[in-house]
Amino acid sequence: MSFEYTPPKYAQLIAEIERRIESGEYPPGSPLPSEHQLMAEFGMARPTVVKALGVLRDNGWIISEQGKGRFVRGRPALAAGQHPRTGRELLDRKEIPSTTRLVSAGLVKAPRRIASYLGLDDGASVVLRRTVVHQGDEPSEIVSVWLRSELAEGTALAASAELPQGVGRLVESAAGVGLDHIVEHLTARNPTKEERGLLGVAASAALLDLYAVACDATGKAHVVLQTVLPGDRHELEDAYPIR
Amino acid sequence: MSFEYTPPKYAQLIAEIERRIESGEYPPGSPLPSEHQLMAEFGMARPTVVKALGVLRDNGWIISEQGKGRFVRGRPALAAGQHPRTGRELLDRKEIPSTTRLVSAGLVKAPRRIASYLGLDDGASVVLRRTVVHQGDEPSEIVSVWLRSELAEGTALAASAELPQGVGRLVESAAGVGLDHIVEHLTARNPTKEERGLLGVAASAALLDLYAVACDATGKAHVVLQTVLPGDRHELEDAYPIR
DNA sequence: TCAGGCAGCTTGGCCAGTCAAGCTGGCTGA
DNA sequence: TCAGCCAGCTTGACTGGCCAAGCTGCCTGA
Predict the structure, then answer these.
(1) CB–CB of B208 and A188 under 8 A?
(2) Crossing angle of helices B35-42/B9-23, nearest 10°?
(3) Does the domain formed by B9-72 have CATH 1.10.10.10?
């Protein structure tokens, strides 16, 4: 009995063509061998070759023009999920004692914005968990987690110990659904009095204020993550295709 | 002779299944009819059915589990490109005389950041085109376009007339390449003296400062778009899948 | 009783071939 | 000469069939 794993033929062809494009053997703009040439070279049937080329096209490696051929675009500059988005990163982040200080964890009245994101009435009770993250000696970020109180009860989210795992996992197991997507809201503002103290910034400082609402596949919001970043210490980066 | 267009069979099947999911006929979590049932109902061969279902899976409508079946996830909450990203929107935006005022258009020494994004030496000459966008009576946004001088020469970008079309199109035809993706850099800061005047904000105001670098498929940067937004008048929104 | 195996379902992968649509370059006939 | 046609290439769409892998429930034999 053997447990070796051989990837499907079409996947092998994908890998080989990607390698040739990266190595410069198939330079950008040049035509790929035709389907029949690839069939002959790799000993595959046409649908197999076509499937591989279809994946390469969907992933941006090549373009195809009916009647002309397929042409190399180059290595896709955007490998999806290359540098993770901020909200996504917050969802997975673990609280590391040496850099994270818990400020509060417990029930509060939901601010209007949070209630709106979570689909609650204004002033409903929610659980707020707030930490300050340090970089070196300086405080560099205030991270807040907001969620419906019934979701946090009895979980590590409402306790004052460091979170053993990312918020995303905790919420998924507490809510019994998978988180599907994130909606981010971003703005710039001056600090509140509390934030001046926590971050050690001037009243006139410019802060990035980012809310990340994590929803399940049906669009229902389960948790809101907020991070407040001094603009002079942080720059957010993001990349996406144009079409 | 007829010029009617009939979409491919697999596309018709995709549309029909999407319709049934949206209508509630196939509720989230329920199993889809098996491949053989769909073959019988729609009179298609198996690969045709499989292709349609593969597209639906790639687009997030359904998931498939080998040995069990395919299951409805629901309408994907994120129709890609649903609300266009800021940098992308800047690339397409036209200058409307009633809301846009041209501040400057011509050669300047490239600031360090711009030179770095465009891959130029520090202090190289670049073309800067800067406009103030009004919303109602108030100035609400400063938009700047930076690009290599040889690209802008002889085009509408270096002229003081309103742009007849989006910056993206102009750059693509001037550079002779298609723009492929955008890299965004975002931070918060206080206004410069010039920006205080143009936007009519206090020295302590918090501004969103967004740079969008538009690159071709090989990763070469062709144009940098910058927008400066008072934080109290703007909120950026974005959504993306978690996995 | 109940563990194990097997039949029958599902999806995944692959093949050989057909027809249609679109492009290109060479040939042909005016 | 040169406009127009057409052969021969390309990719796109589709068919009918095969075998493998994985899951589930029934059924059989210890």
Answers:
(1) yes
(2) 110
(3) yes
